[in-house]
Write a structure and sequence with these properties.
By secondary structure, the chain is an alpha/beta fold. It is about 35% helix and about 25% strand.
Length: about 300
């Protein structure tokens, strides 16, 4: 049985606008599993980004809980070491290996409200939404990696220093961080010459791949990506999707928000949100290039969801 990383129970989020209460998330029960590439889809305003921010501790729910059931890389001993090795061992896009086969049969699913009989086994977790702001900051640095549509690189720092700045918040061993950053840069195709450049001197696609390296520098258990290809042209967007796919095949868990079907096809688990609730999900197995059956299955699912 796959390890549960995050579990939500009755997760809800509301905002007050002009004296009117807006319910953005409504009683969501969900489990996220280690090694999955989970995609969150839905129309604009469905609550996709709000759900991602609540899952990652970037935002606090109004009601309900988000429980972290896994271990952080810095706490896990040999387990953490294996995660760091896996993040650096990126396989070619055509090689899914036995991991891909096992994921096709995985029972990853939304947990219906009140149904606990079929939930996977997990250690006693900590409730993220109960942590103090300082504890949340430490948790996010140790457990979460983030890739945003707006990349937020610091213009006055080199590409390498942008990545090291995030790493030094967790690991003070600069030499070890430089070595890991170089491994990750090599994996995403960022040359050493480019690593010395400033963000204004590189392309949008290169900048987003730098953003992925920054998100992975601390060996997170989950990489959260919010519309990572939304501001890119088709060629650069494809390069970013290929990069995320390769890291997922090496064992990295990914949760991605997107409105783009081309991007969604990379996931093995698609969740569809409507009006703040999960309307349905589609299990696709690991991504294989040129899989027309995958495309047809996702198209049919999205049509059923009213997309």
């Amino acid at each position: 049985m796959k390890e549960i990383l995050l579990r939500t129970e009755n997760l809800s989020k509301s905002f007050s606008s002009g004296g009117i209460l807006q319910h953005v998330l409504k009683n969501i029960d969900l489990e996220l599993y280690d090694g999955d590439f989970t995609v969150i889809m839905g129309a604009s305003g469905a609550g996709k980004s709000t759900l991602l921010y609540a899952l990652s501790g970037m935002d606090t729910p109004t009601l309900g809980t988000v429980t972290f059931c896994g271990t952080c890389a810095g706490e896990a001993g040999s387990h953490g070491a294996s995660r760091r090795d896996a993040a650096s061992r990126v396989v070619s896009s055509g090689d899914a290996g036995s991991h891909g086969a096992s994921c096709r049969d995985a029972a990853s699913r939304v947990v219906p409200s009140g149904d606990t009989s079929s939930r996977g086994s997990a250690p006693h977790g900590r409730i993220i939404s109960d942590l103090t702001p300082d504890q949340l900051a430490v948790f996010r640095r140790s457990f979460c990696g983030f890739v945003f549509q707006q990349i937020y690189l610091i213009d006055g720092m080199s590409v390498m220093d942008n990545v090291l700045a995030a790493g030094l918040l967790v690991n003070k061993d600069r030499k070890a961080l430089v070595n890991r950053a170089r491994e990750l840069f090599q994996a995403v195709g960022i040359l050493e010459e480019t690593q010395r450049k400033f963000p204004t001197q590189i392309s949008g696609g290169e900048a987003q791949r730098v953003g992925i390296v920054r998100g992975l520098i601390n060996s997170p258990r989950i990489l959260f990506a919010d519309e990572p290809t939304g501001a890119l042209n088709s060629k650069s967007g494809l390069e970013v999707l290929d990069t995320l796919t390769r890291f997922n095949r090496s064992g990295q868990s990914v949760v991605m928000v997107t409105h783009d079907m081309r991007s969604a096809r990379r996931g093995n688990r698609i969740l569809y949100l409507k009006d703040g609730a999960i309307l349905g999900e589609c299990l696709l197995g690991k991504y294989e290039h040129g899989d027309e059956e995958r495309h047809d299955k996702l198209s049919s699912f999205l049509e059923q969801m009213g997309w």
